[in-house]
Every structure is written in C-alpha cells, then in structure tokens.
Design goal:
This protein is of the alpha/beta class. It has a single domain, classed as Rossmann fold (3-Layer(aba) Sandwich). The protein contains five helices and five strands. The protein has a five-stranded parallel sheet, sandwiched between helices. β3, α3 and β4 form a beta-alpha-beta unit. The two termini are about 20 Å apart.
Length: about 120
C-alpha cells in the first residue's frame, strides 16, 4: 500500500484528508513541517506528501525548500494545499518543486485524482 504523509495544522482538515485517503493509502498525519521532518528523519519515506502552506514552526514553503535540498526526499511528489488563490503563491509553490497546488476549499474528487496521478504515471516510465 502506498504511503502518504499529510502535513496540516488544522485538526479538522487533517481528519478530512486522513478519511478521504485511508481506504486506498497508508496515511501518516503531522501538524507542521518540523513534525514531518522529524518523522522523515527516522528512515520513513512516503510515496507522496500533501502539505498545507500556512502552518506554525515550519510552513509549507520551508518544507518544500528543505525537501528540495535533501538528497533523500527531493524526488517525493508534493501536493500543496492553500487558502491563497493568487498567482504569486502558486508560482512560488511550483518554483520550489511542488507537483501541484490545490486551493481550499477543493473538491475531494480533484484531490483524489491528483493523489493517484503520480502513482499511475510511474507505471508507464
């Protein structure tokens, strides 16, 4: 079963994401980038990361930056979730290496399609 790391500080959004994904994926949820990196640092490597942008301690941008400079985690696809619907935020996510960005509120089916795509596309490489 593919493993997804969810990084989201809002408990209700974390619950929603976990429940949307858990029937098809093993889901691990953390409340900020520091917790996520702590979990990653003990040999945990997810197949995909879903992260909010605005979080305490280490936000989503900092998480993307740290993933990009690490040799071990830089190829993990990252879906960014944001409440900001402006082009500069979305551009920054893509510039930092995000696989895609979804603006909250999003349609659950759209998220599930974005989550499935990196796994399907790897089968054809």
């Amino acid at each position: 079963m593919k493993k997804i790391l969810v990084v989201e500080d809002d408990p209700s959004m974390r619950w929603l994401l976990r429940n949307l994904l858990r029937s098809n994926y093993a889901v691990v949820a953390k409340s900020n980038g520091i917790e996520a990196f702590s979990w990653l640092s003990v040999q945990n490597i997810p197949d995909l990361i879903i992260s909010d942008i605005k979080m305490p301690l280490m936000d989503g941008f900092e998480l993307l930056e740290n993933l990009a400079i690490s040799g071990l985690y830089k190829n993990i696809p990252v879906i960014m979730l944001t409440g900001y619907d402006d082009s500069s935020t979305l551009k920054r996510c893509y510039d930092l290496g995000a696989y895609c960005c979804l603006v909250k509120p999003f349609e659950p089916s759209e998220l599930l399609g974005k989550v499935a795509f990196p796994f399907v596309s790897k089968m054809f490489l």
